[in-house]
């Protein structure tokens, strides 16, 4: 079924999934404003230079997050969220 005049993008679905995952882990829930638009193109070289890489040192990661107006607290929360479900005995 489709709803007239309502559009939910893949970006919206990811935001909702992130919110629901946090709630499932016992975190707080929050409203997700819908209306994000999906990118129609990708920029590989931009992603390599602007997004944090797994091998970046802390100074570089902090700078890249600062460039996107993230606080240190937000950076730590986002980086920590990316490790949920990926912990192994070898990485602890």
Automatic annotation (TrEMBL):
Keywords: Calcium, Glycoprotein, Heme, Hydrogen peroxide, Iron, Metal-binding, Oxidoreductase, Peroxidase, Secreted, Signal. The gene is POX. The lineage of its organism: Eukaryota, Viridiplantae, Streptophyta, Embryophyta, Tracheophyta. Heme b binds at residue 82. It comes from the Eukaryota. Removal of H(2)O(2), oxidation of toxic reductants, biosynthesis and degradation of lignin, suberization, auxin catabolism, response to environmental stresses such as wounding, pathogen attack and oxidative stress. These functions might be dependent on each isozyme/isoform in each plant tissue. Gene3D superfamilies: 1.10.520.10, Peroxidase, domain 2. This is peroxidase. Binds 2 calcium ions per subunit.
